[in-house]
TrEMBL record:
It holds the Pfam family FCD. Keywords: DNA-binding, Transcription, Transcription regulation. This is GntR family transcriptional regulator. It comes from the Bacteria. Transmembrane segments: none annotated. Residues 28-94 form the HTH gntR-type domain. InterPro entries: GntR_C (IPR011711), TF_FadR/GntR_C (IPR008920), Tscrpt_reg_HTH_GntR (IPR000524), WH-like_DNA-bd_sf (IPR036388), WH_DNA-bd_sf (IPR036390). One of its GO terms (molecular function) is DNA-binding transcription factor activity. Residues 233-253 are annotated as: Disordered.
């Protein structure tokens, strides 16, 4: 039996993450398991831009030796999620130019995802439960924002965008979006720490879902693209002349 619904696919993604995490019995303490666990933390925005990460602290936190942590950090360096820093690495902060490039890419990709989701809805390929799941995800973001917890809001926001990506039904697009979301997660937490922006996103989210529900690719895509473009305008990166990965940042705990 194929797993077609949004919630089913998200459940499989979460299951995969858990299976590949450090606590996995099949690959305990492996470099790949550590890498997956750290990528998951980046996606959730648990590390702040410039925050210093050391092998010793990460190994103790994850309950593994330093060797797999060192290998995982090497992969994160290659992907640009961290940069070299004194006695370890630091979470890569985005310059204004980098943020602009990423938001342009994200607006295009998420606009396409919303269009594809709406197209599938118009063809009867999305179940009513799938649309209801999107509505619940929007409600979850709104509820999280009202707690004024930027990290909880960021996690709920990511879950909504992942649900829209899953509704698009294109695994290659979805995989690309996951990589972009990981890279830009630090901006999401920063944005949602701004009460003005946090208060504006619910209406924008509902416009995207309304377009998908109506089976209107143009409306859904336009709303999604406008939402990401607004997020890009709201994001205020650190000055480009500020050292990235400042040594003053606190190590991960």
């Amino acid at each position: 039996m194929q797993c077609m619904s949004i919630e089913c696919r998200q459940g499989l993604h979460a299951m995969y993450t858990r299976l590949m995490a450090v606590s996995s019995e099949s690959q305990p303490g492996s470099a790949h398991a550590v890498y997956v666990a750290l990528r998951h933390r980046f996606a959730e925005g648990r590390y702040a831009p410039g925050q210093r990460l050391t092998e010793a602290a990460l190994a103790a936190d994850l309950g593994v030796s330093r060797t797999p942590v060192r290998e995982a950090i090497g992969r994160l360096l290659a992907e640009g999620l961290v940069i070299p820093a004194a006695r370890g690495v630091a979470v890569a902060a985005l310059t204004a130019v980098e943020a602009e490039h990423l938001f342009v890419l994200r607006a295009t990709l998420e606009g396409l995802a919303a269009e594809l989701a709406a197209t599938r809805q118009g063809r009867g390929q999305l179940a009513p439960a799938d649309i209801d799941a999107l509505d619940r995800a929007v409600d979850a973001v709104e509820a999280a924002v009202q707690t004024h917890d930027a990290h909880a809001s960021a996690q709920a926001n990511l879950a909504l965008h992942r649900a829209i990506g899953a509704a698009a039904g294109n695994p290659f697009l979805e995989d690309t979006l996951h990589r972009v979301w990981d890279r830009i997660a630090v901006t999401t937490v920063a944005n949602l720490d701004d009460p003005h922006w946090a208060g504006a996103i619910t209406e924008q989210h509902r416009a995207i879902v309304a377009g998908i529900r109506a089976g209107d690719p143009e409306a859904a895509g336009k709303a999604a693209k406008a939402h990401i473009e607004a997020a890009g305008r709201a994001y205020k990166p650190a000055p480009e002349n500020e050292p990235r990965g400042a040594a003053a940042a606190q190590p991960a705990r």
